[in-house]
Amino acid sequence: MAGFPIGTSFLFVGKLSSMTREQARALIESRGGVCPSALSEDLDYLVVGNEGSPFYGGEKKPKQIKAEALIEAGARIAIITESDFMDLLEEQAER
Predict the structure, then answer these.
(1) What's the pTM?
(2) pLDDT tens, 34-93?
(3) Left (φ > 0), alpha (ψ -120 to 50) or beta: where does 57 sit?
(4) According to the model, what pLDDT value does residue 2 have?
(5) What DSSP assignment string belongs to 57-77?
(6) Is 48 exposed, middle or buried (0-12, 13-18, 19+ CB in 10 A)?
(7) How far is CA 21 from each of CA 17, 24, 44, rounded to the nearest angstrom?
(8) CATH entry 3.90.1150.10 includes domain 10-94
(9) 4-15: b or e for each residue (b if 16 or more CB lie within 10 Å)?
């Protein structure tokens, strides 16, 4: 199984529909990534759970709003959906 570059960081916001956060964390860590406990400008990915997300008609969560402000200030955080995260995992597995 291929992995992420060592230390690639993921933080989750909202409810995941495909797995629990613990399962997502285990997948990330098994592939060399990390799951910090707090949002910072050094975060690589903010994963927005599909259930109730703004990408599917819901509202933005405070962490997403804070991440957007950090991005405007120059942070390189990618805000992705849970579906995008699942695609990323699949791509990593194929490498």
Answers:
(1) 0.90
(2) 999 999 999 999 999 988 788 778 889 899 999 999 999 999 999 999 999 999 988 877
(3) left
(4) 62
(5) T----HHHHHHHHHHHTT--P
(6) buried
(7) 10, 5, 17
(8) no
(9) beeebbbbbbbe
